[in-house]
């Protein structure tokens, strides 16, 4: 069957994205064919398109979506045509498409009470928060936690999750509008990086002690602020590089600044097994059912507008989460 898909034939700026018509074969053994109803837009899509995460070209793009099963291949028993499903696919790109064949062992049943748009907008981000705050550094009740980009898609869900855990969430944002959004989503304290010194505010909030963990998706521009905000034996969790890669971390620096820990985790590693993938999703679905997690979709783009979505996201013109509608 003929399907529409966004592809790029060489890494570059958003204008390398083009809408192609492709032939999609019948699903093979262990696969299902999904008709996408909503597709997630994430910063890691920009990394792939720009060449920061090298991928063989020509390539599809996108790692999460929601939709409906249309057909199943041999040996598929967990899914049937008509099932609502969603997925995050790690390094396997191709979600920016009207239809896709996908391995059943990596697929998730969509929960009742959560729309396809909400699932596409939140699954990768919410599962990122799950592994960051429950497994990479397990946040405890009463702890101060510093989160950069607090008004972004991951940041807003982290604020909600942290509040649920009983943590004192400190969010870093750019400007009063984003500060108000962060405040409404679980952040007890919000720091405007455009007008305030992040580390100074953190020390003031924590009585000079600093925070036991910093979650930093910004990278180069926030590196020094993050280091200087940590308490002794604190954890610097670097999980993104929206402003470029942070500088190399010398072992002596970690020693001198209080026996710090530095880690660069990825969701791919934390959901590598099917068991880990489904356990992470189950934790997200449970908090959705409890009303703890609420996704804020502020931008919607047609499949043909994928380049505009990339440009808006890279320029910081977006708030909360964005979705692509095929």
Automatic annotation (TrEMBL):
GO MF terms here are: quinone reductase (NADPH) activity
Record has rRNA processing as a keyword = no
InterPro entries named in the record: ADH-like_C, ADH-like_N, ER, GroES-like_sf, NAD(P)-bd_dom_sf, QOR-like, Quin_OxRdtase/zeta-crystal_CS
List the PROSITE patterns.
QOR_ZETA_CRYSTAL
Check the record and name the Gene3D superfamilies matching this protein: Medium-chain alcohol dehydrogenases, catalytic domain, NAD(P)-binding Rossmann-like Domain
Q: Which residues form the Enoyl reductase (ER) domain?
A: 12-324
Q: Which domain of life is it from?
A: Bacteria
Presence of the UniProt keyword NADP in the record: yes
UniProt keyword annotations, A-Z? NADP, Oxidoreductase
EC number(s) reported in the record: 1.6.5.5
| Transmembrane spans | none
What the entry lists under SMART domains is as follows: PKS_ER
Annotated coiled-coil segments of the chain: none
Q: Which PANTHER family has this protein been placed in?
A: QUINONE OXIDOREDUCTASE PIG3-RELATED, QUINONE OXIDOREDUCTASE-RELATED
Q: What is this protein called?
A: NADPH2:quinone reductase
- Its source organism is Hydrogenophaga laconesensis
Starting at the broadest rank, the lineage of the source organism is: Bacteria, Pseudomonadati, Pseudomonadota, Betaproteobacteria, Burkholderiales
């Amino acid at each position: 069957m003929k399907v529409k898909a966004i592809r790029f034939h060489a890494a570059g700026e958003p204008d390398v994205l083009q809408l192609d018509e492709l032939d999609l074969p019948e699903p093979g053994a262990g696969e299902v064919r999904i008709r996408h109803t909503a597709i997630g837009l994430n910063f890691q899509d920009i990394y792939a398109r720009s060449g920061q995460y090298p991928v063989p070209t020509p390539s599809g793009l996108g790692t999460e979506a929601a939709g409906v099963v249309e057909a199943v291949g041999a040996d598929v028993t967990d899914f049937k045509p008509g099932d609502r499903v969603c997925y995050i696919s790690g390094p396997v790109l191709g979600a920016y498409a009207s239809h896709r064949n996908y391995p059943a062992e990596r697929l998730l049943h969509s929960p009742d009470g959560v729309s396809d748009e909400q699932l596409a907008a939140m699954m990768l981000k919410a599962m990122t928060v799950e592994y960051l705050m429950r497994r990479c550094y397990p946040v405890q009740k009463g702890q101060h936690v510093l989160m950069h980009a607090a008004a972004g898609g991951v940041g807003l869900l982290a604020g909600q999750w942290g509040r649920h855990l009983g943590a004192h969430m400190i969010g870093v944002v750019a400007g009063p509008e984003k500060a108000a959004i962060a405040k409404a989503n679980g952040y007890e304290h919000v720091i405007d990086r455009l007008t305030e010194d992040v580390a100074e505010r953190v020390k003031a909030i924590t009585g000079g002690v600093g925070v036991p963990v910093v979650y930093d998706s910004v990278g180069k521009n926030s590196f020094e602020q993050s280091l200087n905000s940590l308490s002794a034996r604190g954890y610097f969790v670097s999980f993104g590089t929206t402003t470029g890669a942070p500088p190399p971390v010398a072992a002596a620096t970690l020693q001198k600044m209080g026996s710090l820990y530095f880690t660069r985790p990825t969701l791919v590693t934390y959901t590598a097994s099917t068991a880990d993938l489904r356990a992470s999703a189950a934790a997200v679905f449970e908090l959705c059912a409890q009303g703890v997690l609420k996704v804020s979709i502020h931008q919607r783009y047609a499949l043909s507008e994928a380049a505009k979505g990339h440009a808006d996201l890279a320029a910081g013109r977006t708030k909360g989460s964005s979705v692509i509608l095929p």
